[in-house]
Design goal:
The chain has about 425 residues and is mostly helical. It has helices at about 5-10, 30-45, 50-65, 85-100, 105-120, 125-145, 205-220, 230-235, 240-255, 260-290, 295-300, 330-345, 370-380, 390-410; strands at about 15, 350-355, 365.
């Protein structure tokens, strides 16, 4: 076994499903509006997790105002009613929040979706009260999140080339991606910097040289070290996070039959965790502004480390995203996703199937959320986009955020 296989450890403990996922389970208002939110975010070209959290929190609070089983996240309406329609409350909260944020999407997407949701609910006092609760939560939530920095214009100026400094990566993306995420007001954390990563290895260190050699060998487009399975893993996770996490959570929820209340809580907890993991990650990314492997390996800038070997012809298997390397975004967000599932169900021992829209992908089946985390480490190194330390430190952020959210939010309410 070579050094690269040794470092992979247990990360290749994954299996491929033999058949496509079943779609027999029925959708509900929560999953329907998750899909509608996805449509809007894709149309606007916006980043996923914060956009989903922005919608799922008011849906949760609206449903919880009726159900009353869990702690309020942000908004308690003036009056709840246990007999009100949870479907009407959730649909109205989602519609009004999305309408407030994306009014240009109303005619084509939002109004038809809302009309369909309401048409499925019998007319009467329960429906009317549910609509009232959803409106109250949406209005209060929009006021609370006003000026939170989501999708704000935050300038970023590329620094002059220097050892370790992030530079534009092929194919010459003109701008760095979403610097606003580094300063956005979080949903559960106290600040974006609450879980700031410790920083990338010193350029002259043995760890840095090891990181470079590992990615250089395993992540090259023409790598002879990477197995076909590792190649598929790398490509699998290149689907946009805006769609990847939402459709996979909908598929997972369909196997659990949690009902409207359960799904409202599940989707809110998962996306609050994923959103804050992403915010914390971007805080660290733009704080350290560290260069990508495609720059570190090919540059003629001396990094001061005699153990690294320059290769001007090196290219990664996957296109490098246009934001600083450290820490890895998927390490943060995928771990946050996995940790939220673990905390929600009280165990890492969950059967989870992930699918990807990337051509040639097959379903990945896990029986433990920790194996999902192990696999993302393989994916980002094998794709040539990241160094292993970056992914591991990003994963630590996701774990910390997942613990924070589970400890302080979405908690069962003790009944007298």
């Amino acid at each position: 076994m070579n050094v690269y296989s040794t470092r992979l450890g247990s990360a290749l403990l994954w299996c491929v499903a033999a058949a496509a996922l079943s779609t027999a389970a029925r959708a509900d208002v929560i999953t329907d509006w998750n899909a509608t939110t996805q449509t809007v975010l894709v149309a606007k070209g916006h980043q996923g997790p914060p956009g989903y959290a922005f919608v799922h929190v008011p849906m949760y609070d609206a449903v919880n105002a009726i159900d009353g089983r869990y702690s309020v996240f942000a908004v308690r309406p003036a009056s709840g009613a246990p007999w009100a329609s949870k479907d009407a409350a959730a649909a109205t909260a989602a519609y009004k929040v999305l309408l407030g944020a994306y009014p240009d999407q109303d005619v084509a997407v939002l109004a038809p979706a809302y009309a369909a949701s309401l048409a499925a609910i019998p007319d009467g006092a329960a429906k009317t009260k549910g609509i009232e609760i959803g409106e109250q939560v949406a209005v209060a939530w929009l006021a609370l999140r006003a000026g939170d920095g989501r999708e704000a214009v935050v300038p970023y100026v590329f620094q002059q080339p220097a050892p370790g400094v992030y530079q534009r990566t092929p194919p010459a993306f003109p701008n760095a991606l979403a610097p606003w995420l580094a300063v956005m007001r979080p949903f559960a954390m106290t600040s974006p910097a609450q879980f700031r990563a410790p920083g990338p290895p010193d350029l002259t260190s043995y760890l840095y040289a090891q990181d470079v050699a590992f990615t250089q060998a395993l992540g090259a487009a023409n790598s002879t070290e990477r197995s076909p399975e590792e190649t598929e893993i790398a490509r699998f996770y290149t689907e946009s996070p805006t769609t990847f996490f939402s459709h996979n959570l909908r598929d997972f929820a369909a196997t659990k039959n949690l009902g409207v209340s359960g799904n409202a809580r599940l989707f809110a907890q998962v996306f609050v965790t994923a959103a804050d993991s992403m915010i914390a990650c971007w805080d660290s990314k733009y704080y350290y502004n560290f260069w990508r492997p495609v720059t570190a390996i090919t540059t003629d800038i001396d990094d001061g480390n005699p153990a690294t070997v320059r290769d001007a012809t090196w290219t990664p298997l996957a296109t490098t995203p246009p934001h600083p390397e450290y820490p890895a975004g998927h390490g943060c967000v995928s771990t946050g996703y996995a940790e939220a599932l673990k905390h929600f169900f009280g165990s890492p021992h969950l059967d989870v199937t992930l699918t990807s829209s990337v051509a040639g992908s097959v379903p990945h089946v896990f029986d433990n959320t920790n194996k999902m985390i192990d696999e993302i480490i393989v994916a980002r190194v094998a794709g040539g986009m990241h160094f292993q330390t970056s992914i591991e430190d990003g994963s630590t952020i996701g774990k910390k955020v997942g613990h924070l959210v589970a400890r302080n939010y979405f908690r069962p309410v003790k009944k007298d």
